[in-house]
Design goal:
It is built from 14 helices and 16 strands. With 400 residues, the protein is α/β, with parallel strands linked by helices. It has two domains: 175 residues, 2-Layer Sandwich (VC0802-like); 206 residues, HUPs (Rossmann fold, 3-Layer(aba) Sandwich), CATH 3.40.50.620. The longest helix has 19 residues. It starts with a strand and ends with a strand. Bound molecules: adenosine-5'-triphosphate and magnesium ion (MG).
Length: 400
């Protein structure tokens, strides 16, 4: 059998100290046909990268992933698994002797260890090794009655149990009393690369998270307009990029000084058009950097009609500045839902820190609401931004 790969730098093999076995359940990956192997390899690579430093090892066998680690690495390993796109769930499993007696006894023990507030349970069984003497129905029946015998307070509820005890009979026998939900989605890196426009707001970090969950590897670009926006605003975006990077297998952040471009727009464009035109300039910069970095799309945190610049017509104007596809995962989400997700991934608290972004500083009192793309293109061309954009791109700095 193939040796498991280890996440430790020394490349050591599995040791007897690796007492914990985690079973990972694949999500959408299982729907993949011919290229499933590519998805599994990416998942394994990402799992190993997230587990680096824990000494854990990863093994794959027939559609299941296993992670082995020592007791001391438990917290770190569980934290890593909770940040891994591509798994539907994971469970700390007990590995038991592959005999009916041992499996049934493990069910009883798992039931006895359920927290005292649990009243109902159900046993779920899967048997891929058909040579095991009990079929899955018999495992459920015998495991269930053994559990009831040792824990008379419990009842079986097959429809809405409070606890689920799972049994899997494979090359070994596994019993686990609880599963944790995974992030689902697809492994980062399986959908190519995108460049995200990351501001210090609530939306764009969430947009990054969602696109990474569909397999995109991300770089991020922040437009900084010092002194209109403060050094704190820049630090805040760096912090956001780090938080998002925990899920996205890292994320490079580029910072582009937007001051000169913004000033030109400010001085030469009709006030009502300031926001749309500066968004167009951002897009042009992003496309140039994105192409240089091998990105095949741009990502923004736009949500339809959330603000004046995000009407369909204005989005059309902004889109017209570039030819790369612009993905807007939040387009149909309302703010409450976006905030809930921001809280879940841990960006919300940082996003609401009160350092305004450059667009807030320059936003007109009566912005154009239904911009026409021909008019937008005419105004934009009149700004002669080629030179300042070229200079700003040349001076772009990498922050993370
Ligand atoms: P966010 O909460 O992400 O700032 P928002 O609701 O404030 O979004 P806008 O300010 O209109 O929306 O920006 C729309 C999108 O444009 C952002 O989600 C982001 O992708 C991009 N963007 C805006 N300002 C910047 C900036 N300074 N740097 C990088 N991207 C930006
Ligand atoms: Mg913003």
């Amino acid at each position: 059998m193939k040796q498991p790969e280890t996440a430790s730098e020394t490349g050591r093999r599995r040791r007897s100290k690796d007492v914990l076995t985690y079973l990972l359940k694949l999500g959408e990956l299982t729907l993949k046909g011919n290229n499933r192997q590519m998805f599994e390899q990416a998942l394994k690579r990402n799992a190993l990268a997230l587990l680096r430093g824990t000494g854990a090892s990863v093994k794959t066998a027939r559609g299941r992933f296993f992670v082995y680690c020592g007791e001391d690495a438990r917290e770190q390993v569980e934290d890593a698994l909770s940040r891994l796109f591509g798994i539907a769930g994971w469970a700390l499993a007990q590995v038991v002797e592959k005999t009916p007696e041992a499996v049934v006894a493990a069910c009883a023990e798992a039931a006895a260890n359920l927290p005292s507030e649990i009243q109902t349970f159900k046993i779920e069984a899967r048997r891929t090794d058909k040579s095991f003497p009990l079929d899955s129905y018999a495992i459920r029946r015998e495991g269930g009655s053994a559990a009831l015998a040792v824990s008379p307070r419990l009842k079986v509820d097959v429809h809405a149990p409070q606890a689920l005890i799972s049994v899997e009979i494979r090359e070994k026998a596994y019993v686990y009393p609880a599963s944790h939900a995974g992030l689902r989605g697809l492994p980062v890196g399986t959908a190519g690369r995108g460049l995200a426009l990351l501001s210090g707001g609530i939306d764009s970090p969430v947009a990054c998270f969602l696109m990474a969950s569909r397999g995109l590897r991300l770089d991020a670009l922040y437009f900084h307009a010092y002194p209109y926006t403060s050094e704190e605003a820049r630090q805040k975006v760096i912090r956001l990029a780090r938080i998002v990077g925990r899920y996205t297998m890292g994320m490079r952040l580029f910072v582009l000084s937007f001051t000169e471009i913004q000033r030109r727009i400010q001085e030469n464009a009709p006030e009502r058009w300031l926001t749309v035109l500066s968004r167009m300039a951002m897009m042009e910069c992003a496309e140039a950097l994105g192409r240089a970095r091998g990105a095949s799309c741009l990502i923004t945190g736009e949500s339809l009609s959330q603000v004046a610049s995000q009407t369909v017509k204005n989005i059309d104007c902004v889109q017209s500045a570039v030819t790369l596809p612009v993905l807007r995962p939040l387009i149909g989400m309302d703010k409450e839902a976006i905030i809930r997700l921001a809280e879940r991934i841990g960006t919300y608290e940082t996003s609401i820190l009160p350092y305004g972004d450059c667009c807030a500083v320059f936003s007109p009192a009566h912005p154009v609401l239904r911009g026409d793309r021909t008019e937008a293109a005419r105004l934009y061309a009149g700004l002669n931004l080629a030179e300042p954009i070229k200079t700003a791109l040349m001076r772009t700095e990498q922050e993370t």
